[in-house]
């Protein structure tokens, strides 16, 4: 296969800057034809000389040709762009550090333990507030059983009262550290059970600017053995 034209093919040609594109095209065509004739002539000479060689020299010529071809191919491979190596993902097993238990901020905790004389702090639930929790028409905060951290915040007598659908009137410490009387009840709807905070819940939402998407924690504690709640906004 004849190689394409290059600058060396035109080194003996004089280019007139006043030539039209058509004149330049004719010059390129002429150079191309001369190169083609020269290539065919060289091929003819190669075949002619090869045919005149004795058998032993033909064998050496073929071996030499194969060696050169191999070297050229190897040289081409060296100049190929290296293919990126695929890195195998190795799972690094990092030691899993236990998360510290959730705790109330010091100011909140100090108010409950020192100023209110509270004891037995227990995290009841940590949840994202939904629209139904801040909807004035609903006026309630839901505590689904499936999200309750532990049922140990209730004693046996309190659990029985709620099981008999008897609501409890409790003290709620809201995020602004204001104490509010609120109703704590248990609702059973089909196969779903949940606790709810009702009565005065709308005022808690309004006074603390609670919104859909807020993350809150509800803690229980005891004051003189009576159950109380504390609501903290994260």
UniProtKB/TrEMBL annotation:
Cite the entry's keywords alphabetically. Answer: DNA-binding, Nucleus, Transcription, Transcription regulation
A GO cellular component annotation in the UniProt record: nucleus
Which Pfam families does the UniProt record give? At2g31720-like (PF03754)
Entry-linked InterPro entries: At2g31720-like, B3_DNA-bd, DNA-bd_pseudobarrel_sf
Q: Does the keyword Nucleus apply?
A: yes
Q: Name one GO molecular function term.
A: DNA binding
Q: Where is this region: Disordered?
A: 76-101
Q: Where are the transmembrane segments?
A: none
Coarse class of the primary localization is nucleus
Q: Which domain of life is it from?
A: Eukaryota
Q: Where is the composition biased (Basic residues)?
A: 84-94
Subcellular localization(s) per the UniProt record: Nucleus
Instruction: Report whether DNA-binding shows up as a keyword of the record.
Output: yes
Q: Which Gene3D superfamilies match?
A: DNA-binding pseudobarrel domain
What PANTHER family does its record include?
B3 DOMAIN PLANT PROTEIN-RELATED, GAMMA-GLIADIN B
Q: Which protein is depicted?
A: TF-B3 domain-containing protein
Give the species this sequence originates from: Gossypium barbadense (Sea Island cotton)
């Amino acid at each position: 296969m004849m190689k394409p034209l290059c600058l060396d093919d035109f080194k003996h040609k004089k280019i007139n800057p006043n030539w039209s594109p058509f004149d330049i095209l004719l010059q390129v065509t002429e150079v191309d034809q001369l190169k083609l004739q020269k290539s065919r002539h060289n091929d003819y000479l190669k075949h002619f000389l090869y045919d005149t060689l004795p058998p032993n020299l033909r064998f050496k010529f073929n071996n030499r040709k194969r060696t050169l071809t191999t070297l050229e191919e190897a040289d081409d491979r060296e100049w190929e762009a290296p293919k990126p190596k695929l890195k195998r993902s190795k799972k690094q097993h990092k030691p899993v550090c236990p998360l510290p238990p959730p705790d109330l901020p010091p100011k909140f905790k100090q108010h409950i333990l020192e100023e209110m004389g509270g004891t037995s702090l227990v995290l009841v639930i940590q949840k994202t507030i939904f629209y139904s929790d801040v909807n004035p028409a609903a006026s309630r905060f839901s505590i689904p059983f499936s999200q309750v951290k532990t049922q140990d915040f209730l004693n046996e007598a309190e659990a029985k009262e709620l099981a008999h659908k008897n609501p409890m009137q409790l003290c709620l410490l809201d995020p602004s550290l204001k104490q509010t009387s609120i109703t704590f009840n248990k609702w059973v709807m089909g196969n779903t059970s949940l606790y709810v905070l009702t009565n005065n819940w709308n005022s808690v939402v309004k006074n603390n600017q609670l919104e859909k998407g807020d993350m809150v924690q509800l803690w229980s504690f005891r004051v003189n053995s009576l159950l109380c709640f504390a609501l903290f906004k994260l």
